[in-house]
Design brief:
alpha/beta, Rossmann fold, 8-stranded mixed sheet, 4-stranded antiparallel sheet, 12 helices, 12 strands, 21% strand, globular
């Protein structure tokens, strides 16, 4: 589905900052990330490992462990800021209103409890039901996610499930209370392509059945193309481009997004080598000055080394954080607003010259 510009988001994340304070330095894991999630849509958050995708999701649910700390920002769920909620309030929201599927199905289930017990526990945490009712609901959920013979498999232990079946069990657990929002963090890690396709087909069916909004965290643009409605591209702890999935693939505006696109292998290409994004993922304890992508960017200029562009609308329905993106606003008022924001965060960008043309 496409987001209606007049519709209120189910989730609205603004200027989210999460840092980890370590002996090696301060890790800027999430550095001003912003995006929206609308009713019934699937939003893909895509980027390389270390781009802050998973920490963003954990921050949204106040699940960041020490030495991590959420420094600022807002995470509004139907208008209420989750970052202002107490731990007791968050426990009633997690799993009930917003559920999360964590990475690695091989290690996410407790090996000493049956799969059915683990799903039933989630149900009983949020609903006043008997053991028998929770078990019956668990069997229904296992059938919904495509686990064969659920009446007998409900008493199996995780080691008796394949990787694909474990992921289905985690999905059953996540949807057990029919949440508004499902966050799926790399839900097909370590699974083969056939099982991956089956899992995403099940997700589509469940989204239609329960009316969920889904955030899909992945590094795989191929998955995004076949699954998502809109995309947020993450780099260096923040979102650098947002667009509808068709617009993004047809004409990416940020050079990092274009680099990711070029790195996708295509059956029609007659080449022996892939085209990776040049350079290394930035060190989050020591991000480059200015635009954090400029050391890897083929279009970088001197301005990019000193000025850190914020995410800004470049045309209706799409945004980019690049000085050279076609449509990027370099008006004095926009620069002044951005400079004030940067100074509030401990440093100010140097305003770029405005007589150059956009190149992308």
């Amino acid at each position: 589905m496409s987001a209606d510009p007049d519709e209120q988001p189910v989730l609205e994340i603004r200027d989210l900052v999460t840092r980890f304070y370590t002996d090696e330095g301060t890790v800027k894991a999430v550095d001003g990330s912003s995006f929206d999630l609308y009713e019934g849509e699937t939003l893909g958050i895509v980027g390389e490992s270390g781009s802050g995708k998973s920490v963003t999701a954990l921050s949204m649910l106040q699940l960041v462990d020490s030495p991590g700390r959420i420094e600022r920002g807002s995470v509004r769920y139907r208008g209420d800021d989750l970052l202002e909620k107490s731990e007791a309030e968050m426990r009633s929201i997690r799993g009930n209103d917003i559920a999360m599927m964590f990475q690695d199905p091989m290690t996410s289930l407790n090996p000493v409890f049956t799969v059915g017990d683990q799903i039933s526990r989630v149900i009983k945490t949020h609903q006043d039901v008997s053991d028998a009712a929770a078990r019956e609901r668990t069997i229904e959920l296992m059938a919904d996610v495509g686990i064969p013979e659920p009446t007998s498999r409900v008493d199996n232990y995780p080691h008796q499930f394949s990787g694909g079946m474990r992921q289905r069990a985690l999905l059953a657990m996540a949807i057990s209370c029919e949440p508004d929002v499902l966050i799926a963090d790399e839900p097909t890690t370590a699974l083969d392509v056939t099982i991956e396709t089956q899992i995403f087909n099940v997700l589509d069916e469940l989204q239609e059945k329960y009316g969920m909004s889904i955030i899909l965290i992945t590094h795989d643009l191929g998955v995004v193309a076949g699954t998502c409605d809109r995309v947020a591209v993450a780099y260096g702890g923040r979102v650098v481009e947002r667009a509808g999935v068709d617009d993004l693939f047809e004409n990416p505006r940020h050079p990092y997004t274009r680099g990711l696109m070029r790195s996708i292998p295509r059956l029609t290409d007659d080449t022996d080598r892939l085209t990776p994004v040049e350079g290394d993922v930035p060190n989050l304890t020591d991000l480059p000055s200015g635009c954090s992508f400029h050391p890897r960017c083929p279009h970088a200029t001197a301005e990019c080394e000193s000025y850190d562009p914020e995410l800004r609308e470049v045309e209706p329905g799409r945004e980019a954080a690049c000085l050279h993106a076609r449509g990027y606003d370099l008006s004095p008022s926009a620069i002044e607003t951005e400079t004030e924001r940067a100074e509030a965060d401990g440093g100010g960008p140097t305003a770029p010259a405005t007589d150059g043309g956009a190149s992308q």
